[in-house]
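User: Predict the structure for this protein chain, please.
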Amino acid sequence: MARAFTRATPAAFNPSEAALFARSTPYFHKASNRYYQPLIREGRPIFRRFERDSSGAETNAIEYEIHYILGSGNHSRTYLHRDQANRLIEVPVSWYSEAGGVFAMSPGFDNPVHYDFRRKVNYDCFFCHNGYPDLPPAAGRAGDEPVYPAALPEGIDCQRCHGPGAAHVEAARKRSAPAELHKLITNPARLGAERQMEVCMQCHLETTSFPLPNSIQRYGRGIFSYRPGEPLAGYILHFDHAPGTGREEKFEIAGHAYRLRQSQCFLKSAGKLLCTTCHDPHEARRGAAAVAHYAAACATCHEPALEKLTSTGRHSKRQDCATCHMPRRRTEDVVHVAMTDHKIVRRPPPGNLLAPRAERLETAGVSYRGPVVAYYPATGMDELTLASAQVLQKSNLAAGIQRLEAALDKYKPEGPEFYFDLAEAQLSAGHRGAAMEQYEVALRRDPRFAPAVRGLGGALLAQNELARAVPLLEQARSLDPRDTPTLLALARAYQQQGRLTDSIATLRAAAAIEPADANIQELLGNALMASGEAEQAETAFRTAILHQPDLATAHYGYAATLAARGDFDRALPQMERAVALAPQLPQPREMLGNLYARRKQFALATQQYREAIRLDPGFGRAHLGLAIAAASMGDLRTARAELQQAAASPDPAISQDARELLGQLPQ
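Assistant: Here is the predicted structure, written as structure tokens:
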């Protein structure tokens, strides 16, 4: 635990990492077609990302310095970059100890569309991987932006298990009596069994890392506010999949306590089997010493039965209990790591528990959809939080909305949070009117609750009620000037009002906060194009693509900008990339058809126009383009039919062009 977080320097690397950085061989991620190259430049570790175009030349190259290393190196190490706003960004590539030490994608990144260098390290992640940073006590409440102080602790320290130590240290310096010293520090060994386990479970109880939710932090509690010895349920509540839904045997990387608590040994021990029965938090045993120590722990209960089984030949004399009864397994959520399964079993599960596995993508057909049940505490959990758990990650949306409505009607909480949860759930379910009602209820509880102000403003914007939406979004901005979703909604509202200058200024403010956010840069590019600033628009689109090469709409906008400036040769590959990335969008296909038609490649143009029309049968520009391409190839019958379709377009410019061309078309 003390090695779980450290500053990144070449001296901090283990030999395998140092060798990989010294070789600087790019790691190729096939799914996203990107290269990640480790470098050491002037003593600073760096990851460089680039792609290759059809000629093999490098494109979209960008570099991120590594400032911190997360992980002891026993199983893996993840690299973090600190940005100019003091946020921590996870690097897409991690080091894993398997096969002598290799680079592979970080958890959650091994798919065609991933976070690249855009995943922020939230406070709840930091909580379990390091000591307490110097932050206000309330930091880390829901919605807080994870901004870290300049100086960070390095590794989990004594306070994580023993509580704040300043008063204890000061008393020791004053040579206070031992009894006084004991009062000023928490000794987990003096706690009851439940509180002892909770000291470990604050980090090692994760029912799942996939969407459920696994836990909900109590409203009003800061993320770093838990102190050893207090009931864990007063700080955080844990949830699980419902029994019988096929998730009972999940094995994930941070589920040590979750699996142990399933064991018959734990259930029948009446509180005697704890994490510290086998693990000494002050000493990590390795090799033969660890094997002997764990076997001795098992023998405290099982020695008589083991002797009987051994004497009759029904059990081997080998004193290595964990190999069979707590076998190493590959985890489901970090697929390059194998760990000890803490569910103690009579016989190991069948099959190759270490076989390679592909990372699981949480898609509509895979994500859990069913009831969310209380896990810890198993009983006595308040109904409001349990109802919110159904909807927060959409696991049980329809039934959860009804349940949360009933709980709110019964308990009528004073704060805005649960009403906001219901509003967000209603919005996810497509019930915008009901969502707006709940946003307003939340604001009656707290008119300065920024998430609800933004939510109501956004819902009104979706209904084109600009007169009400804009003041609310401006209020949300004043309450939280760094909330980029608010800035994006406000910029869209300004643009719909025709206030392009205000929209551009708002998007620039958002880009200053999130310079690597490709969506912001893309929207800025669109606004700049609309205002006639094509050169600046091109810069914004290129920035978007640099930070997110798989953002199809940014390639589309960039290609459209180039085409508008007459640079058709550079526009063509960008539009082809947009179509390849988002084949379901009709607009890039229509524009690609135009670019092919300019080259007189009418067969290719026709193919794109037809596909655009298949995706959007009423797409007037695509009908018009197909008509012109057909006429150019001599197919006047198709041209006439498509012009008639275009003439029916609600867009008056397209309709007029189509009618004029119909008049010019030979009979």
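The first strand starts at residue 5 and ends at 7.
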